[in-house]
Amino acid sequence: MLSSGVSRELTWIVATLWGLLFFCWLTGWWIEGFIAYLLIYMGRQLWSMRKFEKWIEGGTTSAFPPASGFWSELTYLVSRKQRALEKHADLQLYKSEQFKSASMLIPDAIVSLDHENHIEWFNASSRKILELRSQDVGRKIEGLIRQPEFIHYLKESQYQNVLRIHSLQGVQRTFSVKIIPYFDSHKLLIVKDITDLYNLAQIRRDFIANASHELRTPLTVLKGYLEAMIDTPGPHHDMWLPALQNMENQSDRMQAIIEDLLTLSKMESQTITSKANKVDVPRMLANLKTEAQQFSQGKHQFVFEVDESLTIQGYAEPLKSVFMNLVTNAVRYTPDGGIIKVRWYEDTEGVHFEVEDNGIGISKEHIPRLTERFYRVDTARSRVTGGTGLGLAIVKHVLERHGATLHVDSLIGRGSTFRCDFPTAMPPAQSD
Ligand code: ADP
């Protein structure tokens, strides 16, 4: 089917040709008539073309040129398309303005950076928190925020971690800094003032640490007396012995809980100023094997598969407590005669420490909550085996310090696998 512009043009040609034939028939000037007709037709097309060109050059928002036939239809179609595009662009502009105005109201500083860390745009809070000014657009962010931890975080590209700093641009408050990469190597820098939250958490941590510390001494005294009473024979000694032994067991448990609470609060509030060191994990695991065998009292079979050349950057003591916690858990939750496999290896995804047992297993709904403080699947069993309910919480904290994560796979009655996934490169030490 012909478009309306083309059919209008054809109608014009047919109508004028009839006129031409009549004129030639009347005058007998056939050749002259046809030549004149062609010249007029070409002139008309050139004139319309010129009008159309001028209209396009002048912007399609101006009035339509007085064209006819095919050209008038073309003019109409172009202007309709242009109007639709303009409407779409207006909508996009409106949406982007709406996003910008909303982000202006956010109390966190938000800065958009290009692939070379030049500032492209920032919101109102960035003026207050980061002291940015309009003339900073286009400048490199490293030149404006010179905090060494920030520069390190920006350059290291370990953006899955959040950086916590205690002063920024001379202001002594606590900030969390997060970089989110987006579109074509661009970055969104988000800086949040978390002073109030941090102080509250600090009060809680201090309370737990102080309470645990205060309980330590009276408990040691009680334990001392209990031991003395157990060891000193006297009247009714045999009658009181089971009760005294029970009291001693319970005070041992309390002491273990206090020690774990102190370890945990130390992990949470400790200032890690020391740099991560090279940790000789294979040597550590050789010692751990002996300790694990002693802990199991020969009731379990251990298989160690260790990459002897694999070391990582980290903090030795906390790492040892992670490995020990996972291995002793495997012993405590695996019936006698069970097999416990410990692996230390590297693959394309990073470095891994893995403990696999064929013990009681854990049902799926408990797995996400295992690292919560005092969360136990079976409280009675945990107590009987000397658990505090804090082991995996400690594991989680230490792994976070190493930029690592804990992965748990388990099937009831079949066993569990606890795997620590370390990144190959060590993240920067946090300065909290
Ligand atoms: P606990 O001192 O009670 O063992 P943890 O924090 O170490 O505390 O572990 C939390 C809970 O996770 C335990 O109470 C236990 O129910 C479960 N759990 C940990 N390791 C294992 C394992 N290897 N097999 C089965 N259950 C486990």
Describe the protein in words:
With 432 residues, the protein is α+β, with helices and mostly antiparallel strands. The chain has four domains: 4-93, no CATH class; 106-193, Beta-Lactamase (2-Layer Sandwich); 197-269, Orthogonal Bundle (Helix Hairpins), CATH 1.10.287; 277-422, Heat Shock Protein 90, CATH 3.30.565.10. It contains twelve helices and twelve strands. The strands form three sheets. It has a five-stranded antiparallel β-sheet with strand order 2-1-5-4-3. The protein has a five-stranded mixed β-sheet with strand order 7-9-10-12-11, with helices on one face. Strands 6-8 form a two-stranded antiparallel ribbon. Helix 1 (4-27) packs antiparallel against helix 3 (69-105), helix 9 (281-296) packs parallel to helix 10 and helix 10 packs antiparallel against helix 12. The longest helix is centred in the first third of the chain and has 37 residues, at 69-105. It is elongated, with a radius of gyration of 39 Å. The site of adenosine-5'-diphosphate has 21 residues, from helix 10 and helix 12.
The major pleated sheet works out as: 5 strands, antiparallel
- Percent strand equals 15-25%
Into how many domains do the coordinates divide? 4
Enter the CATH topology name of the largest domain.
Heat Shock Protein 90
According to CATH, the homologous superfamily of the largest domain is: Histidine kinase-like ATPase, C-terminal domain
Tell me how many strands there are: 12
Query: Under the CATH scheme, which architecture of the largest domain would be assigned?
Result: 2-Layer Sandwich
Shape: elongated
| Helical proportion, percent range | 40-55%
Cα distance spanning the termini: 76 Å
Give me the oligomer status.
single chain
Using the coordinates above, name the CATH class of the largest domain. Answer: Alpha Beta
Radius of gyration: 39 Å
Order of helices and strands: HHHEEHHHEEEHHEHEEHEEHHEE
Stretches where pLDDT falls below 50 for ≥5 residues?
Answer: 427-432
Bound ligands, each once: adenosine-5'-diphosphate
Strand order of the largest sheet: 2-1-5-4-3
Q: How many helix segments?
A: 12
